[in-house]
Amino acid sequence: VAGENFDQSPIRRTFKSKVLAHYPQNIEWNPFDQDAVNMLCMPKGLSFRTQADNRDPQLHSFIITREDGSRTYGFVLTFYEEVTSKQICTAMQTLYQMHNAEQYSSVCASSSCSMDSLASSIDEGDATSLGKLQRYNSYDISRDTLYVSKCICLITPLPFMQACKKFLIQLYKAVTSQQPPPLPLESYIHNILYEVPLPPPGRSLKFYGVYEPIICQRPGPNELPLSDYPLREVFELLGLENLVQVFTCVLLEMQILLYSQ
C-alpha cells in the first residue's frame, strides 16, 4: 500500500505502482527518469475497482522541467483492466475480511459489548449499519470482478495535447478491441516515434494514428506559443469570476498558486 490510508476500504486504498515497459529504453540527450514518470503518471498510486464502480478512461497531462529550463510534456491515458491473477483477487478478499472485522470490532466497542456476546449486545441501529457495511463494503471473489488501473503515456517535446489525446485513445481502443487493428501495435508506436516528423514552425501536419488521421499544428515564429489545451475546460473548472481574477493577477504580475486534488 502506498500511503497511510488503512482506514479506507481496500478498494479505496492506493497501492504502489511501477513502470512495466517503456520505449525506447533510453535517449542520450533525454534520459528516461523512471521514478518521475511513474509518479506523474499515477500521482495517487495504483487503484482497484469492481464492476460496480465507474471505470471510464481518464486523460491528464504533466510537465517535466529540467535544470536548464527545458521542458518535456507527458500525456497519460488511465484505464482499468480486469485482474486475471487469482492470487491478487484472493489477497483483496483477505484485505476486505480484515477490514470488515476491524469495522465490526469498532461497532461493538461503540455499543460497549463484550467479546462473549457480540450478537446479543449490538442494538438494532448498529446491526443495521453493520449489515449495510457488509453489503456495500465488500469484495467477493466468486461474485465480483476486480479491475486495476493501468496507464499508457506519450512523452513529447511540444505540448500537442489534442494530437496525443487522439492517438492514445485510438491506441487504447486497439488494445481493448476484440478485433485487432490491421497492423501490430508495435508498428503504430514505431511510426509515431520515428516516422512522424515534428512539424516546422507555422505548418500543420497530418499523420495516421491507429484508426483515423490526426492533425497537429505548430505556431509560426511571430505567433503566440503553442497552447493546445481546451479553454472550455478552464472555464468549467474555475468559473468565470475566478478566471477573471486569475487573469487580473497575471496582468498585475502577482504570484499565483493553483492547488487541487
TrEMBL record:
GO terms for molecular function: guanyl-nucleotide exchange factor activity; small GTPase binding. Residues 1-261 form the UDENN domain. SMART domains: DENN, uDENN. The keyword Membrane does not apply. The keyword Lipoprotein does not apply. It comes from the Eukaryota. Keywords: Guanine-nucleotide releasing factor. This is DEN5B protein. It comes from Alaudala cheleensis (Asian short-toed lark). The lineage of its organism: Eukaryota, Metazoa, Chordata, Craniata, Vertebrata.
